[in-house]
Every structure is written in C-alpha cells, then in structure tokens.
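User: Predict the complex with calcium ion.
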Amino acid sequence: MAGHGLCKSTKNIMKVLIYVFTVLILVSCSNEQNITSEQDLVKDQKYNWRLVTSWPKNYPGLGMAPERIADLVEEMSNGQMKITVYGAEEQVPAFGVFDAVSSGSHQMGHSGGYFWKGKVPAAQFFTSVPFGLTADEINAWVNRGGGLELWREIYAPFNIYPIPAGNTGTQMFGWFNKEINSLEDIKGLKMRIPGIGGEVLKEAGGIPVTLPGGELFTALQTGVIDATEWVGPYNDLTFGFHQAAKYYYYPGWHEPGPMLELLINKDAWDSLPKHLQVIIETASKAVNQDMLDEYLAKNNQALTELVETHGVELRKLPDDVIEEFRIISNRILDDLASKDETIAKVYTSYLKFKNDVSAYHEISEDAFVESRNK
Ligand code: CA
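Assistant: Here is the predicted structure with calcium ion placed in the model:
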C-alpha cells in the first residue's frame, strides 16, 4: 500500500510538473509570438522624415552632405527610412533650421552651430572659433575627447540631438579689393565676416558685416563691402568672387575647421528603433569624413584655376596682423567664458584638448609637413 501510495503521489507530482511545464511552454511561446510580432511591426514600419538645411539645394559640398546622408540611410535601411532634403528657404529660412527641429515641425536639420550663437552661445565651439581646432582635431575632440557629450548636453534643453555631419577644412580669409600690408589697413575695412571672427575684426578697427551667401557677390562688386570671407576655393569659385575682387587672402584664422551638424528632434529620435538610430549615426559619420575629403580634393584644383586662369592674386596675411588677430581672439574667448557658465565649461574642455593636441602635432604632423615641404 505504502509503495502504491508513493507511486500515486509521484504520479500526482508528475501531473503537476507536466502542467506547470506546459503552462511555462505556452507562456514562453506566447511571449515569443509577442516579441516576433513587435519585431515585425518595427521591421515593417516606414519612416518618412523631412530635413531642412541652411544651404541652397544641392550646393556643392555643404548642400550635398545632407543629400548623401539621406541616400545612405535609405540604402542601409533597405528603404525603411526615407529622408526628403529641403534647401534654404524652401520650407524654412536658412537661419530657421534650429527652431524648426526644436519645435518638431521638421524631424531633421543640417546646419552650423555658430549660426545659433544668439540662442546658444556655446554652440560656436562645435563649429569653429578663431584660432581653434582644425578638422582632424575637432573630430577627435568631439568623437573621442568628451566634446559630443557636452554638445548633447547644451542642445538637450532645446529638445535637439546633434550629430557631427561634415567639415569644410581650413577656410580662406577671403576676397579683398584692398591690400592688407599692415594693421593700419584693417582700420575702416568693411568686411562680411560672421561670428567671433567679426568681433575680432571690429576690435582691430574694421567694420564687420553679416550678409547671406547669395548677396555677397553684388555687395563686393558694388563696393558696399571691401572684402568678404565665404569658404574656400571650391565654393568661392562657384560664386565667382574672382570677378568682383582682386586679392585672395589666407589663412582662414577665423574658421580653421568648421564642423557641420545634423540636428534631430529628440522625440523623433527616441521614437526610432535602435537599428535606424545606428544607421543614421553611421551614415553621418561617413559623410562627416567624406565632405572633408571632397573639399581637400577639390580646393586645390579650384585654387589653381583661380590663380592660373583668372589671374587672382594669392596673398598671405602679414605676420603682425595675424598675431594681433590671435591676441584679440584669445581675449574675446576668455571674456566670453568669464561671463557664461556653459561657455566656461565647454571652453575649458576645448582649450585643454587644443593645448594637448597642439603639443602632439608639433612633434608629429607639423614637424613632418615642415620637413616634407622644404
Ligand atoms: Ca566662412
């Protein structure tokens, strides 16, 4: 009896175990089905986003960067995500991009952080500041030196998630109808030069003017301005500045390596499945480098054409003028940092990185290029 009883209770235990096991399998299957159907949903959902820019549609370099990001994202996502790119003024003004993305009227934007200096003064450090980081250096600071975390922190209150997305490399100081032989020649010089560069010119005695790219040729030709900066040979040739000014001055101390930005509305970003976020980040990273390569490859061809075909006079700024600009720039940046806590935080990180990387470049790239070019 005892044996039979034991056998019966074993059978009961077995029944319970089989029941529990079956329930577990059923629950597990139903979870799997849920996960599968959620994955199917994410897999099938199409995303059609709009991207506004500060550049003319399909403008060489600047305007093509967001087009390339859109193409890459569509191909990498196998058509799941389609981004339509709009040129400046097509949907919002050139300088309305930040607000459009912040408000969510558009999911994405492509622009330069220094345009928002009135709203986010520290944003300038993520594009370019006078005598600041070159393209390679700002890439290293942003991607590997703590810059990106600071950038996302200062854009967070505006509900914007920034991603690095292009660089023109070192720009030219620009086009002049007057020779610059000494600091005296800066006095009263009317020049289109935006941002902190403009403030530096002002302190040196010049008159900075802010005008959109499309108005520069006429302003220069009619004498409304004496000089203008824009980008570099590749872009400047397309605007035909050589027909309106005689002298082409370098170096572009005011924009040593401006980084452009892909702006994404944070709510829109958070709504994306992880794999599309990775695709967007990867596409932007590819274009960030590709644009720099494009400028480097095209700038020299364009410069040769400007000098040899169009007779442009290429001039280097006198050393004492550059020295004065550098002293004023550092004073202005220190002053900005002393008045604004956020700028102070960003500038401290930026400056430390600049000092470290300059010290290393002195014994690596700088020393090598100097020996190679002798
Ligand atoms: Ca410029």
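Residues 2-44 form the longest helix (43 residues).
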